[in-house]
Design brief:
By secondary structure, this protein is α+β, with helices and mostly antiparallel strands. The chain contains 16 helices and 15 strands. The strands form four sheets. A five-stranded antiparallel sheet has the order 2-1-7-6-5. Strand 1 and strand 2 form a beta hairpin.
């Protein structure tokens, strides 16, 4: 393969350099002895070997530096040839390429490869003039956007979610729910790829509740050096996805109706606790205390369902206070152990008391922990172990929930935090609505943290989420009287309208 050329050439050039240095050193040594300048004593040979080692090392370094352009050329050609390769292609925009003048050569290679690919793979449209072709694209139900090498929009058909700013610049109206936005993906492609493709599901152009909201499945293709460097295809699927948004609104309505009865139950429990305090036995008092705690948790869960519906509208609000992860877990510890033992699972918890305090809403984060542990228990094997741990991670505390259960394929993992998403297998074997992880994501991101999962089919899954260390956000929370609004940033700069969460 082409990729094998550079290692072979490097071994050959280094070996040849060392052999040449051996020959030169021996020739010099023999010449000195024959001329009577030096006597072949041990000190003479040691000195000669030292000179050889020094010169050989310097020559190897010199040869390696001088052959670096050949290495970069080989890497670029390997990537445009389509051979599998785990080394990032040379980026012509790197500063050292601009300094040594190698940038135009790399750009020309990428452009020639792109032009050749366009000539071979792209059939000539049979619709006549370009104007007719544009008309045909406007008559399709899909949106098409083409961007040049500077990521300027050079074409967008009538179905594409694009608007023009007062300054005359075209902007894509898309709201991504995670860190892998189109803009971030393109930045990564510029640095590490020659050709790449990426898809996103359920990307809306407006937040829930706004008029004329549309939801798309998106595919983007990147080809470095091409005149049409980025091609984005958008398939509108509002009629497929909108009913699920309506379902969440219905669940929110039901949760709202439940708040009244739950409030009454909590009130009666408080009255009973006060009135019967002196008459209850210890076990009865403990039972009543657990009822109060469960009622309060139920009230918190109802509030979080309501918050999840607000999350779609980008204004989920929680009150954050200084708290510890260990204390938060303590309020659900008994329930989690009971849940695990009833399913014949082992639950191991390692949350050090020495961890820094975090900024958290206790009820909400306890729901996240409860949901993740409950999932780990459900998807573990009979007699399996579930591990809960926490550790410092920069300005955050990272909490992990790990199981060694059935695991998930990558096709499931990529959609896991979408609301109402359930894989075909889990729908058949495990009860649920598919909203739990979506609510977890809403809660964690409303705290300024992140949630994610690593999983391998047949090996188990690890869910992780982060919470900001309180000292890193204390000033912001104090200024906002505990509100989380300062931890959520809306960024509409650039060519894409991206609603992203603030990290720390």
């Amino acid at each position: 393969m082409i990729r094998d050329y550079w290692p072979r050439y490097r071994r050959y050039s280094v070996s040849l350099t060392i052999l040449m240095q051996v020959g030169a050193t021996l020739a010099i040594g023999l010449a000195l002895i024959v001329a009577g300048v030096a006597i072949p004593t041990p000190q003479f040979w040691i000195t000669l070997i030292a000179i050889f080692a020094t010169c050989a090392g310097l020559n190897v370094i010199l040869v390696t530096q001088l052959s670096t352009p050949l290495k970069d050329l080989t890497s670029a050609i390997t990537h445009i040839s389509g051979e599998p390769n785990n080394i990032a292609p040379p980026n012509p925009n790197a500063r050292h390429f601009e300094r040594d003048g190698f940038k135009p050569i790399l750009q020309l290679i990428y452009e020639l490869a792109s032009d050749k690919s366009d000539d071979q793979d792209t059939p000539t449209p049979k619709v006549g003039p370009a104007a007719d072709f544009a008309t045909a694209l406007n008559n399709t139900s899909a949106g098409f956007i083409i961007m040049d090498a500077k990521q300027n929009i050079v074409y967008a058909n009538s179905k594409a979610p694009v608007h023009t700013t007062p300054e005359g610049r075209q902007v894509i109206d898309l709201i991504f729910d995670d860190d892998t936005t189109l803009e971030n993906w393109l930045k990564d492609c510029e640095e590490n790829a020659v050709h790449a493709d990426r898809s996103w599901l359920r990307v809306a152009n407006k937040i829930t509740g706004e008029e004329d909201r549309k939801i798309y499945d998106i595919t983007a293709s990147y080809e470095k050096g091409s005149k049409a460097e980025v091609v984005i295809t958008l398939l509108e699927r509002t009629t497929d996805y909108q009913p699920e948004d309506d379902d969440l609104d219905f669940i929110a309505f039901a949760a709202h109706e439940l708040r009244g009865p739950i409030t009454v139950i909590r009130g009666y429990l408080d009255v009973l606790s006060d009135e019967l305090e002196s008459k209850l036995e210890d076990d009865q008092r403990e039972l009543l205390s657990r009822l109060v705690v469960s009622a309060n948790r139920l009230s918190s869960y109802v509030n979080n369902i309501l918050n999840a519906s607000r999350y779609d509208r980008r204004h989920l609000k929680v009150r954050l206070r200084e708290d510890s992860v260990a204390d938060i877990y303590a309020i659900i510890s008994d329930d989690m152990q009971l849940r695990a033992s009833s399913q014949n699972r082992m639950l191991t918890v390692a949350i050090p008391d020495s961890l820094p305090t975090v900024a958290a809403d206790r009820g909400s984060i306890s729901e996240v922990l409860s949901n993740l542990i409950d999932n780990a228990v459900k998807y573990s094997n009979e007699g399996g172990m579930v591990y809960v741990s926490a550790a410092t991670d920069g300005d955050f505390v990272k909490v992990s929930v790990k199981d060694r259960g059935i695991g998930m394929p990558s096709s499931v993992v990529s959609n896991l935090f979408h609301k109402f998403y359930r894989s075909h297998r889990s729908r058949e074997t495990v009860a649920g609505t598919g909203i739990g992880l979506y609510i977890c994501k809403a809660i964690v991101e409303s705290h300024g943290g992140r949630i994610g999962v690593r999983s391998a089919e047949g090996e188990g899954s690890t869910f992780e989420f982060t919470l900001p260390i309180y000292s890193t956000v204390a000033d912001k929370l104090t200024a906002d009287q505990g509100s989380n609004q300062s931890l959520i940033e809306h960024d509409e700069s650039g060519w894409i309208k991206n609603h992203a969460m603030y990290r720390g």
